Amino acid sequence: MTVEIPGFERRAITLAGADGVHKTRDVYVAGEGPAVIVMTEVPGITPHMITFAERLLRQGLSVYMPQLFGKPGAALGVGTTTSALLEVCIRREFSLLSSGASSPIVAWLRGLARLAHEERGGPGVGAIGMCVTGNFALGMMIDTKVIAPVLSQPSLPLGLTRAQRRGLHVSQDELAAVKAKVANEGAKVLGLRFHGDPLCPAARFERLREELGDGFEGIELDPRSANRAVPTTPHSVLTVHLIDREGEPTREALDRTLAFLKERLLPTS
To answer: Which domains does the chain have, with CATH numbers?
Structure first.
């Protein structure tokens, strides 16, 4: 069953995956400015994610939001979260434990970034990943015009071992290419997490600082600053655990994210 989202055009986009096989996915598109690929957290394109995407549109950016799992428009809940997690766990496109390679789905997302740049132009493309998609934005920098990657609570690989807790979910070749882009092209990477988040360990941000130096800007928040009306461990910086009031640390993190994207994609604004 297809689902429409008010204000967005639902497009069936066919692109090649890591194995060269073409796959068609629904992508929700809106806006006219430089593109940002918005990759959702579990359980998918929730009302929280739609609100976040609408904020990007108000900045003069366009949004390409692929349906990667879950049912678009479904609210966050135990049932929707469990269903989406099971979907992610059984699909070979997601490599939950891989610290030395991107998930296969990243190849398809690179193709989407290239298409979005062709259609919307500008100096490049932004990419925002959250939770299980968080480190996808890093892998998408390869062979694309992704110049504004945002890693919000990047949770892959799952941190069962020390190597996985420090893992960036990219191969050595991909990491070398990212580092070259930072050194030679002035690329920057923005990361966000809550202290104490077991899904996004501190060691992962330490590794990003070691590898990227000044090319990585990390924002790490006190968990006491999270929206505690949501009875879960503070995790989703830009959506579920956001307190949308001036002066709140999570709102400041959101504002910095929007500013980062505009600095990179709308440099004359």
So the answer is: 9-265 (3.40.50.1820)
> Tokens standing for 28?
């929700």
Q: Which of 169, 124, 116 is nearest to 146 (CA)?
A: 124
Cα–Cα distance, 225 to 100 (Å, whole number): 33
pLDDT (tens digit per residue) in 125-169:
999 999 999 999 999 999 999 999 999 999 999 988 999 999 999
Check if the beta carbon of residue 78 is closer than 8 Å to that of residue 166: no
Query: How long a stretch of residues is the chain?
Result: 269
Backbone angles phi, psi at 213, to 5 degrees: 55, -130
pLDDT in tens, 43-97: 999 999 999 999 999 999 999 999 999 888 888 888 888 887 888 888 889 998 8
